Amino acid sequence: MARFNRILITGAAGALGKLARASLPPLTTHLRLSDREPLGDLANHEEGIIADVADADAMADLARDVDMIVHMGGQSIEGTWADVLNANIIGFYNVYEAARKAGVRRIVWASSNHAIGFYAREQVIDASVYPRPDSNYGVSKVFGEGIAQYYWDKFGLESVSIRIGSCFPEPRDRRMLATWLSPRDYQHLIERCLIAPRTAHTVIYGMSDNDMKLWDNRLATHIGFRPQDNAEAFRNKIEAATPEPEHDDIVFAAHGGGFAKAGHFDDKPS
Ligand code: 15L
């Protein structure tokens, strides 16, 4: 029997939303899907609602009768301050307020390694470190983790903030030999975040069982995340396709890679 009556996935038309859409059906009787973009054909167990996270009333409707939320919606890369503000600050707050008022038990959401993107490559960090965001986008993820902590401490709404590394079918460059999260490990991680008996507010790093590690999940063992894939299997292919980096190039020297190196997104090119 399914554990949950209804799970809501926001950002269900995006890559991570689609992966959750594919893997969650055994856990839930109803899957509510939401995005600004079309959701495609709906299966019998699916409900589809087109909505923008920046619309507080729409978020309130979405959260009704929901047990758990998998929040993958919002801005997923660096962008203008206006875009980040609407999607990841105002929109994120709307999702939490809607969940609090609807009595949702837990939100599992896509934070990002860009919340800590300015840590140096030779420093392996756990979830207790002070944030060092590398972008407008990274700052919005720090805001999100703050909201998640606040809503647990004050309102008892549980969260898992997943500092996702690089979730793609294969690692694409040398940095991703450390940051890669395989789609299969991502799906397993989402399931564990939902079924773990108690999470309070947990911060966990979303990475596969890569030989090269930047992050340590020792503070999140209660989630029971056991990744199976390892980016090392792609090393030869990646090294053949990409030049050796300069050792002090920030793309390689900081956890956040290109996000740490890029200038301010809102600056006009001179
Ligand atoms: C992220 O947060 C992005 O959503 C994703 O597109 C990648 O850029 C990833 O980080 C990464 O750091 O590789």
Features:
single chain, 270 residues, 7-stranded parallel β-sheet, 9 helices, 18% strand
Output mean pLDDT.
97
Q: Main β-sheet: number of strands, strand sense, barrel status?
A: 7 strands, parallel
Order of helices and strands: EHEEHEHEHEEHEHEHHH
How far is the first residue's CA from the last residue's CA?
60 Å
Bound molecules: D-galactaro-1,5-lactone
How many E-type strands?
A: 9
Strand content: 15-25%
| Helix content estimate | 25-40%
Shape: globular
Overall structural class, as computed from helix and strand content, comes to alpha/beta
Give a structural overview.
The chain is of the alpha/beta class and 270 residues long. Helices cover 34% and strands 18% of the residues. The protein has nine helices and nine strands. The chain has a seven-stranded parallel sheet, with helices on both faces. Strands 7-8 form a two-stranded parallel sheet. The radius of gyration is 18 Å and the shape is globular. 44% of the residues are buried. The model has no long low-confidence stretch (mean pLDDT 97).
